[in-house]
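FW: tagging you since you asked about this chain on Friday. Here's the raw sequence from the shared folder, copied in full. Didn't touch anything.
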Amino acid sequence: MSLFYPALCALASAAILATLVQAVLGDGSPGSVGRHAILGILTTIFVSFVHSILMSWMLGLGKSQKTAILEFALDPELMREMRRIKSRGFPMATFAPLALIAAGLIGGGVQAGSISPLWHQVAVAVAALMNLLAFPGQVRVVRDNERLMRRVEEEVDRAMWMSRRSPPPPDGANLVETEGTGPIRQGQAESPNAAGVASGGGPSPEGAAGSADGEESTGAGQQPPGAAGSADGKESTGAGQQPPGIAGSADGEESPGSGRQPPGIAGAGPAAEASGTSTQSPSGRASTP
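HL: got it, structure written out here
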């Protein structure tokens, strides 16, 4: 905008000066008056177009600047500077073309013979002076507005950079509550055997084997490490805790009256060794059924 708008202002100034020169050098003949009227109408249209470009550009740019200042909570001085620039640009862009339009309408009345030519000459002098003085001020307004636009862009970039460097949430803010297991951190996988916790005895100690078919042991307490469960997943109703290394009966039923057996001796009867383990006697030989 700061590159081509000064060129437009220069062309508009040249059109105004050309219309004045043609009016002064004209001989007052009908042909000269007609050419002056056509040139005046074209000059008025072009000058009004130049002023309207400035107003449209300032309206659109001002709206985007205001949105950025409010959204990112920038310095309020930027908003005040934007209003000062608008107060300098809008009056010139509004009243200068209106004066030129009024001068053209008075010229039409002069050509119709209803208005004295003196009024037209005065109106043309005032309109030309207003526009020739308004164009340099409008060029300065455009440059000041572009400087303000760069300042707003820099402030927005700084605000976005600061938002990206904001500290992470405090430790524990990303914990979620899961049913039955307490809070765990997001992204942490749940334990695969979380649903297999014994309902009556709490979680089994590390290393303890569960039942064969995944059913929970309702009556048995915590089993010591290394103790194997029953072969078919049934609960041991009267067994209680067994000493380490003692295998249960083959079908998972309790051995009545057996009590505690000495270490190294397998269960009585036709029961096989529990969980496929081989129990050796104290002498190092495997016990026979």
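FW: The chain has a mean pLDDT of 71.
HL: agreed, and The chain is about 50% helix and 5% strand.
FW: great, closing this out.
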